[in-house]
Design brief:
- This protein is 74% helix and 0% strand.
- The chain is an all-alpha fold.
- Helix 3 packs across helix 15.
- The radius of gyration is 30 Å and the shape is flat.
- The relative contact order is 0.12.
C-alpha cells in the first residue's frame, strides 16, 4: 500500500527570507512617496529658508564682528565681545528692565485683562452696545502704529487732552511724557492692542456651553465664582496662546514709543528695540546693535518656551 504524503508537509518548512533587493525597493518606494508628498510645500519651505532663516543666520554672523555703518574699511571677528559689552553697559541693562516693565504692564496685565473684561461684558450687552464698543476698540487696533503714536502723544503731552480734562475737573496736571514716560507708552500700547485679546477671548467664550453656566447660576454661584471656577479653566488654552502672541508683539514695539518719546527723557522709556536702533543706526555700531537684537530674540524665545510648556501640561 502506497504511503500517502502528509497533508501539512509545508507546515514545518523553513520560510524563505525576503531578498535584500525587495527590502531596498520597498524603502526606496517609501522615500519616493515622502518626497512626492513634500513637493507641494517645497516652495513655501524655500521661501522660509530664504527670507527667515537666511537673515537670522546672517545676523548671527554679524553679531560676532565689529561691523560699523560708516568709517570702516573691513570688519573683523571679535567673538563674544559685543555680548560682554552689552552686559557691562548700564544703558543696555536699563533697556532690558524697561522692556520687561513695558511688556508686563501693557501685555500681561493691560491687554490680557482688559480684553477678557471687554469680551465678558460684550457677551451680555445688547447688540447696539456690542457693535459700538467693538467698532471703537477694533479701530484703535487697525490704525497704523505711527498714527496711533501721534494720537497718544497729543493725548499725553503738556497741552494735551488729558491735562485739559484734568484742568476742567480742577485736578492737578503734569507733563506725563516727562514724569511717567514708561507708563504713558504702556497705556498707549494697551489702548492700541486690546482688540486682539478681546477677539480671541470672545471666540473662546462663545465655545463654552451655556448649560454649564446656567447650571452654576441655578446652584447659586456668583459672577466672580463662575468666572474663576468655570470660565477661566475652560479657556485656559486660549489665555496661554493670547499671552504668548501678545508678549512677542509687545517685545518688538518700536514705532509707538519712538513717536511718543523717542526713548526719553534720559532713556526712561528706551526699550530694547529703541536701544538696538540707536546703537546700530545712530551710533553706526551694526555689530553691537545686531548682538542686542539677538539678545532680544533670546528673551522672546524664553517667553515662548515658558508658554508652550504651560500649554503642553494642560493637554
Amino acid at each position: 500500500m502506497t504511503a500517502t504524503a502528509p497533508q501539512h508537509a509545508g507546515r514545518g518548512a523553513r520560510k524563505t527570507p525576503a531578498s535584500p533587493a525587495a527590502g531596498s525597493g520597498g524603502r526606496t518606494g517609501t522615500v519616493r512617496r515622502s518626497l512626492f508628498r513634500a513637493l507641494p510645500v517645497s516652495p513655501a519651505l524655500v521661501l522660509l529658508l530664504l527670507f527667515l532663516a537666511g537673515p537670522i543666520v546672517y545676523c548671527v554672523v554679524i553679531a560676532f564682528t565689529d561691523l560699523q555703518l560708516t568709517g570702516q574699511a573691513q570688519e573683523s571677528f571679535v567673538g563674544f565681545d559685543n555680548f560682554t559689552r552689552a552686559f557691562r553697559d548700564e544703558a543696555f541693562l536699563n533697556a532690558v528692565w524697561l522692556t520687561l516693565v513695558f511688556t508686563v504692564l501693557s501685555s500681561l496685565i493691560g491687554q490680557n485683562t482688559l480684553g477678557l473684561a471687554l469680551a465678558s461684558l460684550m457677551r451680555r450687552a445688547s447688540k447696539p452696545v456690542r457693535t459700538l464698543t467693538g467698532g471703537i476698540v477694533v479701530t484703535a487696533w487697525v490704525l497704523p502704529e505711527v498714527v496711533a503714536g501721534f494720537l497718544l502723544y497729543a493725548f499725553f503731552r503738556r497741552e494735551g487732552t488729558l491735562n485739559a480734562i484734568l484742568d476742567w475737573l480742577h485736578l492737578p496736571s503734569q507733563n506725563w511724557l516727562f514724569t511717567l514716560p514708561i507708563l504713558a507708552v504702556s497705556f498707549a500700547n494697551v489702548w492700541r492692542g486690546t482688540a486682539f485679546s478681546m477677539l480671541v477671548y470672545s471666540a473662546a467664550l462663545n465655545e463654552i456651553p451655556k448649560e454649564i453656566t446656567e447650571a452654576a447660576e441655578v446652584d447659586g454661584a456668583s459672577g466672580w465664582r463662575r468666572m474663576w471656577h468655570i470660565t477661566l479653566p475652560m479657556i485656559r488654552r486660549s489665555i496661554g496662546t493670547n499671552l504668548m502672541l501678545n508678549t512677542l508683539q509687545t517685545l518688538s514695539v518700536f514705532g509707538l514709543i519712538w513717536v511718543m518719546t523717542r526713548g526719553g527723557p534720559s532713556g526712561r522709556s528706551q526699550t530694547l528695540p529703541l536701544f538696538m536702533y540707536e546703537q546700530a543706526f545712530q551710533n553706526s555700531l551694526i555689530g553691537y546693535g545686531t548682538a542686542v537684537a539677538l539678545l532680544l530674540l533670546l528673551i522672546g524665545s524664553l517667553f515662548s518656551v515658558v508658554y508652550l510648556r504651560l500649554l503642553r501640561t494642560e493637554v
